[in-house]
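Continuing the series of single-chain predictions for the mutant panel. This is the parent chain; the variants come on the following pages.
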Amino acid sequence: MNESALSSTSTNVLKSVISLPVIVAALGYFVDIYDLVLFSIVRVPSLKSLGLAGQELIDKGVFLLNMQMAGMLIGGIIWGVLGDKKGRLKIMFGSIFIYSVANLANGLATSLPAYAALRFIAGIGLAGELGAGITLVSEVLHKSVRGYGTMIVASVGVSGAILANFVAKAFEWRNAFFIGGALGLLLLIMRVSVAESGMFGEMKNQQVRSGNFLALFTDAGRFSRFANSILIGVPTWFVVGILITFSPEFAKALGTTGPVSAGNAVMFCYLGLVFGDFASGMLSQLLKSRKKVVFIFLSLTVLGVAAYFLQGSLSPAAFYGVCAFLGFASGYWAIFVTIAAEQFGTNLRATVATTVPNFVRGMVVPITLFFQWARQLLGLEGGAVTVCILCLAVALYSLYRLEETFHKDLDYFEEFL
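Parent structure:
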């Protein structure tokens, strides 16, 4: 193939990938991530303004994080079922409206119970965005390029964490929540002109049974695919939920030569995630495999965690560098959600693609509780390492049990009563 033909082919691929559904899904995930990580960035100043101090900053911080993640766990089920019954676009509209309003209200919170309730409601809203976006993009793009589409969604989306850090530094924590809510409401305007998935339309025309969440548990094969799809993503939220969220405490325990900001740790981690999601998406297309890429990135996570705990008394800049590498190593998020979407038929795809990432996020609850228990016995570092080993072992075993889905045709239905 000559240079002109190659250029023409590349242009056609680019045009087919960068479509309105991909752009809107990417921007939606951008706002989603902004709001999702904002609490980790403003945890300390927001709790201090409510009169908390010392150990309460960790204990109540874990409580609020778990409230948000519990909301996402419940919201993932709600939005996933609605996505298969009512359409991918409707849940994208509904979820972003709920979490935008919740974040606007969060800026007005004056007590811990109110803060917790609004984090829970925001979590329910945040649950619908990524799964709906990945499902829509997977169904509107050809199977040969859908990996590029989900790569763009994830790469653009996770950069919302970088904006969240800049906004949190430039504005008081309440205003940072106001800005997140406003961005979400503005995004709703763009959603009006996006068309629904053709596969979903065909399913509705055939009146196929859809959105039955319990069907994931009534068949051993379906349950295995569902559970393993969840467990391969657990290490990502160990990194974000433990190592990055509580980076100031870990940096102090490790002997870092200066103070470490949670906001900066989040920013550098998500900067790494931007490049990690881009690299994993490209590598998936080049290797024509999802599973090989996830294995590579889980291996990189092992190296990143080792570097995190063995860095010793280095500078804050070196600590942030390790956070960036951990973010890069965790950057298989788009591939992980794509694998989940590709495991199931059209009538369960939104249910799975929406519940799986939120069940992974919801796993932060048992992860943080186990970490709280383990650190009482083994100390801060020993407890974290123990939890990490368990998360990685489970993820590697689950990856082994999943089928390769790179070339899989997604235009089919699951059979259930």
